[in-house]
Write a structure and sequence with these properties.
Largest sheet of chain B: none
Order of helices and strands of chain B: HHHHHHHHHHHHHHH
Oligomer: heterodimer
Radius of gyration of chain A: 25 Å
Number of strands of chain A: 22
Helix content of chain B: over 70%
Number of helices of chain A: 10
Shape of chain B: flat
Distance between the termini of chain A: 37 Å
Helix content of chain A: 25-40%
Chain lengths: 377, 298
């Protein structure tokens, strides 16, 4: 077990940043805390680091099975990379990286030559060998980020925590650094947690993703799990684009407005649709369909859920054509299709088509889920 | 487009570009006569009110020759007054640096109840007339107050003695260091300190290796302004020094010389010392401002 936190609650005044959160992160894993701002992800990271204290009554924080919540920040053996790097502006790159080694008590401190060797090997690792004498202000954003990482790794931490590590970088550098960090993690296998609000980043980089909302972890799973079988409406909504309809369920069928039918792939609250009891009665529900899960046709598909809609706009710049439509009930709908299919069907504004989902996910409208859906809108 | 043709293209456009630039400049600046009038008025004002009096001080100081000038400086009373000024300046810079760091640290880096009140309190010495400040201390330490009586019983002299002069000077110069440090510390935030703490540094290491280096130029700047004010302070000190020759500071001594027998070069000679110190301060201030603007860019 790498990191374990149990029943952590943290309030700032009347605002509950974390609400009874528990999570277990395996040793050597790279985990993303993903969520919108205010979801509590940074607070959770800072509590793991020891930079915030959880409310009284919260459970323990354990690193590799040992309780650390009584230990001070500096004694926990964490490497922390701050969102804006927090490099020491009056020190050179070399001194920044060496800082953690030089502040150790004399008896456990390395000799000067050992420190020099270690810093040089770290500089080599972050590919900045020739910039040791520069000051942080003379570096680019990506270089600063790597120095911050080397500085955190210099003290050989048990775990590595990164707060929005790529948040302040431009898109191209962000993608490069992402790949570089993943390679680095594969080499050193340090238990690592990073905070991000960027789903691409979380899904691409992490072994597992904890999707957070309103101080709670909504779902914790591999990128595949959270993306392809979301357990809550919030996760469904937060990851990727999705169309959302109010509707009803009855006898294995879905009803949206005047249209009723089934789809080949149906899931009810993360479970197989066929097994769900709620579907027997006419349950009010929210129905989610991804834009790429629509079949577009000019004829109604019998036996299937087929929603008639009119094209309002087509965005063709991109790998796929994005089609914006409006249903007869006046609801907007977005679908994605290939360029060749667009040409074949002669999609154009004003055209009327039947939208037949291949895969739909349904969540019953109980109060808790409904509240989440509203927030996500 | 090859680099050759692009160069030609640019040079062909250069004249056009320049014309455009001047048109924009014409549209956004005042006419020549208005500019020269304003600049001229500023220079005339500065010359009349600042430069002429300064030249006058040095001119008068040397009017009776170098030997008179020198004798006025090495005079026993002058030396004593200078010593008193240096003592007052030293203590006020030293203590204000320590207190300024502590106050700016808690104001700039923490949120607490009563912070706004504390900030206004720090500005009090700027708002209050120095003479009133002197009187406050006079009443605080005089024999009518219980503190004054207690001090007298224990044979500690504050008023009309060196401690009084030092205390009055500290009060008057108090805001300089804090005022310089607060905005710098606020702008820098606490992230670097947090980073140092995570890396295992203790409080003292964080202060000496992260916090202090980050504010060193602002601190020096504040200290220099504080020193200049301490050396020039007249009002507050004149009340607590009480016209006793042994507690005279340089500014008080100049007034004595001016009002007593001498109408010659002596008061100007001593004044020229303070004026020289002021010029040094200005130079140091300019250098530091340049340094700070550079470290801001970094």
């Amino acid at each position: 077990m790498g990191i374990e936190v149990q029943n952590i609650t943290k309030s700032f005044g009347s605002f509950k940043a974390l609400d009874d959160v528990s999570v277990r992160i395996d040793a050597g894993e790279l985990v993303a805390l993903l969520g919108p701002s205010g979801s509590g992800k940074t607070t959770l990271l800072r509590i793991i680091a020891g930079l915030e204290t959880p409310d009284a009554g919260s459970g323990p924080v354990l690193f590799h099975g040992a309780q650390v919540d009584k230990k001070k920040v500096g004694e926990r053996g964490v490497g922390f990379v701050f969102q804006h790097y927090a490099l020491f502006r009056q020190m050179t790159v070399f001194d920044n990286i060496a800082f953690g080694l030089t502040v150790k008590p004399r008896r456990s401190r390395l000799s000067k030559t050992q420190i020099r060797e270690k810093v040089e090997s770290l500089l080599h690792m972050i590919q900045l060998d020739n910039l040791a004498g520069r000051y942080p202000s003379q570096l680019s954003g990506g270089q600063r980020q790597r120095v911050a990482l080397a500085r955190a790794l210099a003290v050989e931490p048990q775990i590595l925590l990164l707060d929005e590590p790529f948040g302040a970088l431009d898109a191209k550098v962000r993608v490069e650094l992402r790949a570089w960090l993943r390679r680095l993690h594969n080499e050193i296998h340090l238990t690592s947690v990073f905070v991000t609000h960027d789903q691409d980043e979380a899904l691409e980089l992490a072994d597992r993703v904890a999707v957070m909302n309103r101080g709670k972890i909504e779902q914790f799973g591999t990128p595949d799990e959270v993306f392809h079988s979301p357990q809550t409406p919030f996760v469904m909504n937060f990851l990727g684009q999705v169309n959302q309809f109010r509707g009803r369920l009855a006898q294995g069928r879905v009803q949206i407005g005047d249209c009723e039918g089934a789809a080949p792939e149906m899931e009810f609250e993360g479970q197989n649709f066929a097994k769900c009891r709620a579907c027997e009665a006419r349950t009010a529900a929210t129905i989610f369909i991804r834009p790429h899960d629509f079949e577009i046709s000019s004829q109604r598909r019998e036996g299937r859920l087929s929603i008639p809609a009119t094209v309002t706009r087509i965005h063709s710049a991109g790998n796929f054509a994005r089609v914006e439509m409006v249903t007869d009930a006046g609801e907007t709908l977005t679908a994605e299709t290939t360029h060749s299919e667009r040409d074949e069907l002669q999609l154009a504004p004003g055209g009327r088509f039947y939208m037949t989902p291949r895969s739909i996910r349904v969540f019953a409208d109980d109060s808790a889920n409904a509240a989440n859906v509203e927030l996500a809108e | 487009m090859t680099s050759e043709t692009s160069k030609n293209y640019r040079s062909a456009n250069a004249a056009e570009y320049k014309a455009h630039f001047h048109a924009v400049q014409r549209a956004t600046t005042e006419p020549v006569w208005a500019r020269s009038l304003l600049i001229g008025a500023t220079f005339a004002f500065l010359t009349f009110f600042l430069l002429l009096p300064l030249i006058c001080v040095f001119y008068e100081a040397l009017a009776d020759g170098l030997s008179v000038f020198w004798r006025a400086l090495v005079d026993k009373d002058t030396m004593r007054a200078m010593k008193m000024t240096l003592i007052a300046a030293f203590f006020s810079v030293f203590l204000n640096v320590i207190f300024g760091l502590a106050a700016a640290w808690c104001i700039g880096k923490f949120q607490f109840w009563g912070k706004g009140f504390l900030i206004s309190l720090i500005d009090l010495p700027f708002a209050i007339s120095p003479v009133i400040a002197g009187l406050l201390f006079l009443f605080l330490f005089c024999s009518y107050s219980s503190l004054g009586r207690w001090l007298m019983e224990h044979n500690i002299r504050v008023i009309f003695a060196t401690p009084g002069v030092v205390i009055a000077t500290i009060f008057v110069t108090f805001p300089f260091v804090v005022r310089e440090l607060i905005p710098v510390m606020e702008a820098q935030g606490t992230e670097e300190e947090q980073a140092a703490r995570v890396l295992g540094a203790n409080g003292w290491q964080i202060f000496t290796r992260v916090t202090l280096p980050n504010v060193k130029w602002a601190l020096l700047y504040g200290a220099i302004l504080c020193n200049a004010r301490a050396m020039g302070e007249f009002g507050a000190v004149s009340v607590v020094a009480g016209k006793v020759a042994k507690t005279n500071t340089a500014p008080l001594h100049i007034e004595d010389l001016q009002q007593s027998y001498a109408k010659g070069a002596e008061p100007f000679a001593v004044a020229s010392l303070l004026a020289a110190a002021a010029i040094l301060t200005l130079v140091a201030k300019a250098v530091l401002e340049w340094k700070m603007s550079r470290s801001d860019e970094e």
